[in-house]
Design a protein that fits this description.
The protein is α+β, with helices and mostly antiparallel strands and about 350 residues long. It contains eight helices and 13 strands.
């Protein structure tokens, strides 16, 4: 199975079954391809609760970017000039003023004019809705070359400690000892053995991870300017304090809240006559022209088999808003919204 399909199945499994130890009251918000400038994770799980998601809901379905988070976290309960109640942002105040107006448009902040001053007060307190962040790296085929590169990436994840747990998900081989356990992976990283099938995806934790220190105290970020796999002696380290970690974790969680893992449809041609969704556990994209699952890179206007939906499909038996492709997008959006 290609990594894209493997990744979608891991996400679907995590949405239904996370956490593996069945912690009571925990709700998982699952997304894919999120991270920081220097590191992107295949699968991201934000552990939260239904009550915390309810407290987050008044801030809208869209993510709060770094500027909106700055305003949401620091806005006062009573009318105050915004420059007097918000801490120094470290960048020009005009960007804060723009964020104040965007926050007012989103409905979680109120503004009023007092002469030539803009006063603000919050309507809702921004909640501490994130319990833990879990990062999963997906490698269905863990050959020797892939294992070496992956080990370096996972060492980076452990050193930074931005996630509370880091896992490696790989295909089950059926060997007495799974090959992933024999590779030189960091001991702090857990291992998931994944067996996709037509009946669903079976996932078994075969190595438990260690909980990482996500507080930020004493953390140094490994930054390789050349983007390559230089050794540690040649790497440049930059200190990251608790506030940096807290801010980055919030930004990642907000993007996960907005996107979910079904956002793959945003970059695929659901308006192609051959595009459809299969497998109720996902659902997952399927190409009837190729008669197989396709990747996000394959499903584009450059695909030789791409053929727009006939106009009649959008007017005969389908909603006015569009044909089968639009119906697939609405289905995925309803499922994404339900997880919020």
């Amino acid at each position: 199975m290609k990594e894209f399909g493997f990744e979608l199945r891991v996400c679907a499994w995590a949405e239904r079954n996370w956490p593996p130890d069945d912690t009571s009251g925990t709700t998982a918000v699952v997304a894919r391809q999120l991270g920081t400038k220097h590191r992107r994770w295949d699968t991201v799980i934000v552990e939260t609760t239904d009550a915390d998601l309810t407290a987050r809901a008044p801030f809208g379905d869209g993510r709060l970017d770094s500027d909106l988070l700055f305003v949401a976290r620091n806005a006062p309960t009573s009318w105050t000039y915004y420059r007097e109640c918000l801490p120094d942002p470290g960048y020009p105040w005009r960007y804060v003023r723009e964020a104040v107006h965007r926050a007012a448009d989103r409905g979680f902040l109120e503004t009023r004019r007092a002469g030539n001053r803009i006063e603000i007060r919050r309507r809702y307190r921004y909640p501490a809705w994130i319990d833990r962040i879990i990062a999963i790296e997906n490698k269905p085929d863990l050959d020797a070359a892939a294992a070496r590169v992956l080990a370096e990436q996972l060492e980076h994840d452990v050193a930074v400690g931005l996630a509370d747990e880091v896992w490696l998900a790989t295909s089950t081989t059926g060997d007495r000892i799974e090959p992933a356990l024999l590779e030189a992976m960091p001991v702090e990283v857990g291992v998931l053995s994944v067996s996709p099938s037509s009946d669903g995806t079976t996932v078994e934790p075969i190595w438990q991870p260690r909980t990482l220190d996500s507080s930020g105290a004493g953390t140094r970020i490994l930054d390789r300017p050349d983007g390559g796999s230089a050794d540690r002696s040649a790497a440049r380290f930059e200190y990251a304090g608790p506030e940096w970690k807290h801010r980055k974790r919030l930004e990642i969680a907000e993007r996960a809240y907005e996107r979910g893992w079904r956002s793959y449809v945003d970059t695929m041609r659901s308006d192609c006559r051959w595009f459809e969704l299969r497998d109720p556990n996902g659902p997952f994209p399927w190409c009837r022209s190729k008669d197989r699952a396709q990747t996000a890179a394959e499903c584009s206007a450059r695909c030789p088999a791409f053929e727009p939906e006939p106009p009649g499909w959008r007017s005969r038996g389908w909603p006015i808003e569009g044909g089968p492709g639009k119906a697939a997008e609405r289905l995925l959006e309803r499922k994404r919204a339900r997880r919020r």
